[in-house]
Amino acid sequence: MRLTQINLAGFKSFVDPTRIPVPGQLVGVVGPNGCGKSNVIDAVRWVLGETSARHLRGETMQDVLFNGSGERKPVNRASVELIFDNSLGKAAGQWSKYAEISIKRVLQRDGDSSYYINNIHVRRRDVADIFLGTGLGSRAYAIIEQGMISRVIEAKPEELRVFLEEAAGVSKYRERRRETELRLKDTRENLLRVDDIRQELDKQIEHLQTQAEVARRYHALHGELQTTQSLLWLTRKQEAAASRNRYAREIERLGIELEAETAKLREAEKRLEEMRSQHYRASDEMHAAQGALYEANAEVARLEQQIAHVRDSRNRIEHQLATVRSQLEHNESQLAAAHGSLGEWRSEKSRAEEQVAGRAALVAQEGEKLPVAEETYRATNTRRDELQRSLAGAEQALQVEQTKLAHAERLLEQLAQRGERLLEEQASLQGPDAAAMDSLRQEMQALEQALHEQRATLAQKERLVPQLEEDLRGKNDALDAATQCLTGIEARIHALQQLQDRLARGAQMEAWLAARELDRAPRLWQGITIEAGWEDALEAVLRERLNGIALDSIEQCAAWLGDAPPGKMTVVGAGDADVAAAHDAVTGCEPLVRHVTCRDSRLRAVLAEWLHDVFVVVDAAAGMSLRERLPLGALLVTREGHAFTRHSVSFHAPDSELHGVLSRQREIEQLQETIGRDQAQQVELKAAAAAAEREIEQRKAESGALRQAIDATQLRHHSLQIEALRLSEQAQRLTQRGEQVSAELEEIAGQTATETGHKEAAAANLERLTREAGEFRAQLDLATDLYRRAEAVLELQRAALQEAQREHQEASFRLRTSESKISEIESSINVLSENISSLGEALTALQSELAGYDEKPWQEQLQQALSRRSERTQALAHARDGLEGMESQLKEVEQERLACEQKLDPLRGRIGEIRLKEQEARLVEDQFTQQLAQAGAREEELRALLEKGTRSGALQGEINRLTEEIKGLGAVNLAALEELQTAQERKNYLDAQSRDLSEAMTTLEDAIRRIDRETRERLQQTFDEVNGHFGQMFPALFGGGVARLVLSGEEILDSGVQVIAQPPGKKNTTIHLLSGGEKALTALALVFSIFQLNPAPFCLLDEVDAPLDDHNTERFCDLVRKMSEQSQFLFISHNKITMEIAHQLLGITMQEPGVSRVVAVDIEEAMKLTEEAVA
Predict the structure, then answer these.
(1) What is the pLDDT of residues 212-260, one digit of tens each?
(2) Model confidence pLDDT, tens digit, residues 51-72
(3) Is the pLDDT of residue 582 over 70?
(4) Please, which residues bridge with residue 549 across strands?
(5) What pTM did the predictor assign?
(6) pLDDT at position 1162 over 70
(7) What radius of gyration do the chain's Cα atoms show?
(8) Which residues contact 712 (CB under 8 A, 6 or more apart)?
(9) Chain-centre distance of CA 302, in angstroms?
(10) How far apart are CA 133 and CA 131, in angstroms?
(11) Mean pLDDT in the chain?
């Protein structure tokens, strides 16, 4: 690619849109100091992606925006565009197909920065990708700014390697390797995370397999329990259906009796209906009379309204007649005035026609004089422009000489300042202090001893951390076991509590209790405690009474006698009986009540009553032997609940939901005590684990602090080593620098003599050009005076013509106004005539309409309507009297019907009671039907399973057995099966993902090795070629000497590059001993050596020849001229020798303070001036 043009707008001092053409291979940029030449280099660096404000000679990126001047405001937008010729298609990537490529960057003051390629919005990276490996870029070697030559040659070895990589074209490989390493790092981290998850998942699957086996057993028992529960519900549903059918037959019998009594009531109602019909007819007659009266009133109101309408219409027409008469008189007066105004405007029209003719002649006369004045003005203006161009040429030549003189003076001043600095430096050259060196060595020894002690302490502390972590793992395992045990106990309590809460909680009973605020009342079994082993005995004696409700007073039940509960229920009241005294006279057996403890004092009396004469025996054999000694009403009971009286034996078996309520309650209380102890133990274990974690963290923090101290000590020791090395090298450099300063002082004396001659020649030329500019300025003043006089005459002639034209336009306007007014008045006369005619017709029509409105006929109709209204009022009063008599008779018959109906109430009450019972049975049946439906049970299948004669008690016993077996399973994780399947699926997925990540790591590592191999080969080849070119280029520029590049390490990929350069006759060991000019030539040799290997499309040089003398400048120019055959050069220079090699020169000026502009420079004139200065 070849740079053809640079466009700037708002960038630094280039505030106006500026076009800088770059037509040839060697383009020079010249201009005085501070005019903005280096801003062109900054613009190219900025558009190529530079993001550091320091490298753009600013503090922030906003500094590239024009910040205003004394006469201009700041701008909010800066843009720079580079246009390249890509006709050979050498651009990288997709842009190779474009013959011309435009790269543009735009920055807004709000910080928004945008990049464009061929007006397509792209990323900064896309711009960088085009120039990867070409030597171009924001930090590449093809852009050499002021001071960069010294920075290149004095750069660190790692920084020099960047230039070598750019020349080798491996910067894109570096970018690819960095991206690959990032992906490899992410892959390793993902693989570690996946492996951790897999290990944790293996432990989880092993634990879930045990829980899943328990869950399968639970599901099997639970299914059997649901089937048995459904059979129980079906049995109770059939019992309820039988009760419902019995009540239905009773209701049918009572219904027949009710129908007989109802027939008698119907007879009485029939007579009542006849009386009501007569009453309705009388009411209709009264309503008809009332309606006739309403019609009469409406007729009277209508006639009164019509009379009012007639009066309003007459008033309206009379008002319209007055309005029409007034409008008729007004139009007649306007018509007379219009005839008078028409004559006046016709006279005004005649006067205006005469003025138009006179002003037209005057305009023609003044128009003939204007061309003569314009010709005189053009001639004087042409002469003034010619003199201005001559003066500008003289001033431009004068400015060139001023530039030369200023350049010579600046060089002389720089040489004088440089000589003074060298003299001061020569006087100040002193070696390092020996005492400081001894102090430095002592401090280094002390630091080495401290470092040894700190490392020993760190090793001792780190040995304790694994022991503490092992102790923490043991405590965490104990805490997990305690937590798991606590969770099982809580689940067991929850299951037992749910069984307790479901006791005798039918929907109807719950609603009945809630209506009386008894749903939260304590049950009997909640207020007592039975000794272990005697639960079945107490349940066998009390049965359903265990679920009784405890109240403060039994008298509360009196309010329920009319509304009994919908099921069996026992209510217990408070009492003061002495339980122990109730059994003083009992024979040798121990009373059951002594094994019972009452937590609720209200229950003592009722327990004394229910357990009176109830004794306990060890077993059934003892009961059989002792029953004959029992008094009447006494009872013996065993631990199993078998009961013995004198004449009977009852064997106990679980047959209700209350079975086990006391044992469950005792287990709940015991578990609650256990959970309290376990929770306390869990808190202690958590505290111990937290303390262990804090101790570990403290140990780690101490180790971390100690490591930081070791790092700080190592850093200090390393700093001291560097300082010692620096002082040693400083002594060597000072010796070499003294010799170098002496040589530079001799060189400065020779350059000062040469520049003094240049200064005298420029001063003589400046004096001559100043005289010529004065002569041109005097001629320009005379021509300017003639031009201003001609301009004044032209303005006067134009003003006279404009005045004549204005008067002609005013006369024409008055003529058009008169004609318009005459037309308007004639049109107005016609309109007024038509209005007068139409108003006369309207006046006649209104007078006819007024005669049609007469009030007298309507008054006669009103009097007739008033007579009819009086007659209908009397008829309405007569109808109301008849209706009142009929209502009195109707009330008497209604009282007879009510007396007959009251006789049916007792019979209906009986039917209602039986219907309620039948409804209760139906509700019970529906309840169990609903429970079966909710359980999803099929009654046909259940009937097949139900054996003939099966009782609900046996089914309840089987339910209790299954419930106990389910309880024996302990805490069950019902979601274990699904969790196990999910965990196994996730395990399979993670295994596959781990394999994929391992394969991806292998692929990425192979890619990195391949990139390193290719990069190493290309970089080594490039290094060898550049080193060869450098060894040839250096003697060419210096006229002898040797130079080479040396790697600072074994591995070329991360080694730095050092420059070894020895000019002719010198055996310096480091390039820092070279003079400024020698360093500049060395850097140029290195840069141009890289160019020979990988020529960049173009190269920017910013005053790189400043430190060179004329002889070295000529060598530099010869080299640049030769290199321009392959690369395009755009250079900034104040040196006349460098200017001579340019094919084109571009001038940068700042005539307006703070604003840079591009001006054309005549190369032949510049060469002529240069030759004169040399002569």
Answers:
(1) 787 777 778 777 777 877 777 878 777 888 888 888 888 888 888 778 7
(2) 777 778 888 888 888 888 878 8
(3) no
(4) 523, 571
(5) 0.36
(6) no
(7) 62
(8) none
(9) 76
(10) 6
(11) 78
**pLDDT tens across 801-815, in order?**
788 777 777 778 777
CA 964 to chain centre: 56
Q: Which amino acid is at 1152?
A: E
CB 965 within 8 A of CB 220: no
Give residues with Cβ within 8 angstroms of 756, minimum separation 6.
408, 412
Report how far residue 161's alpha carbon sits from residue 1054's, in angstroms, rounded to the nearest whole number: 9
Helix, strand, or coil (residue 1100): strand
Backbone angles phi, psi at 1130, to 5 degrees: -120, 110
State the Cα–Cα distance between residues 181 and 178, nearest whole angstrom. 5
Average pLDDT estimate for 39-54: 86
DSSP 478-503: HHHHHHHHHHHHHHHHHHHHHHHHTT
Tokens of 801: 């013509």
Q: Give, for 875, the enclosing helix (H) or strand (E).
A: helix 856-901
pLDDT 10s digits, 517-571 = 666 677 766 667 778 777 777 777 777 676 677 776 676 676 676 667 766 767 7
Nearest Cα neighbor of 573 from 557, 559, 562 is 557
Domain ranges of the chain: 1-142+1103-1175, 504-656
Cβ-based neighbours of 313, under 8 Å, separated by 6 or more: 853
What CA–CA distance (Å, rounded) separates 717 from 366?
102
Q: pLDDT tens digit string along 1021-1034?
A: 888 888 888 888 88
DSSP state letter for 74: P
Q: Are 1054 and 177 in contact (CB under 8 A)?
A: no
What DSSP assignment string belongs to 590-625? EEGGGGEEESSGGGHHHHHHHTTTEEE-SSHHHHHH
Does residue 932 contact residue 939 with C-beta atoms inside 8 Å? yes
Quick one: pLDDT at residue 78?
93
The pLDDT value recorded for residue 1169 is 47
Say what percent of the chain tops pLDDT 90.
3
The Cα–Cα gap between 1043 and 1088 comes to 14
Long-range pairs for 87-94: beta carbons < 8 A, 24 or more residues apart: 90/1, 90/1097, 91/1, 91/130, 92/129, 92/130, 92/131, 92/132, 93/129, 93/130
pLDDT at position 576 is 53
pLDDT in the model for residue 82:
92
8 Å CB contact between 431 and 731 = yes
Distances (CA, A) of 1159 to 404, 721, 755, 773: 18, 57, 27, 20
- Per CATH, the number for 1-142+1103-1175 is 3.40.50.300
Instruction: Determine the Cα–Cα distance for residues 231 and 25; give it in Å rounded to an integer.
Output: 106
One-letter amino acid of 339? H
3-state DSSP assignment of residue 1069: coil
Residue 455 has, within 13 A of its CA and on its CB side, a CA count of 9
**Angle CA 205–211–217, to nearest 5:** 140
Give the side-chain half-sphere CA count within 13 A for 14. 26
Nearest to 1127 by CA among 1097, 1106, 1156, 1153: 1097
d(Cα 902, Cα 523) in Å, to the nearest integer?
A: 45
107 vs 368: CA distance, rounded Å? 58
Tokens in use for 406? 């200023």
DSSP conformational letter for 726: H
In whole angstroms, what is the distance from residue 668 CA to residue 493 CA?
Answer: 6
* CB-facing half-sphere around the CA of 390: CA atoms within 13 A: 16
Higher pLDDT, 130 or 556: 130
Q: Name the amino acid, one letter, at 424.
A: E
Query: Measured between alpha carbons, how far is 509 from 381 in angstroms, rounded to an integer?
Result: 121
Residues 6+ apart with CB under 8 A from 531: 595, 596
CA dist 322 and 1032 (Å) reads 124
The H or E element spanning position 649 is: strand 649-650
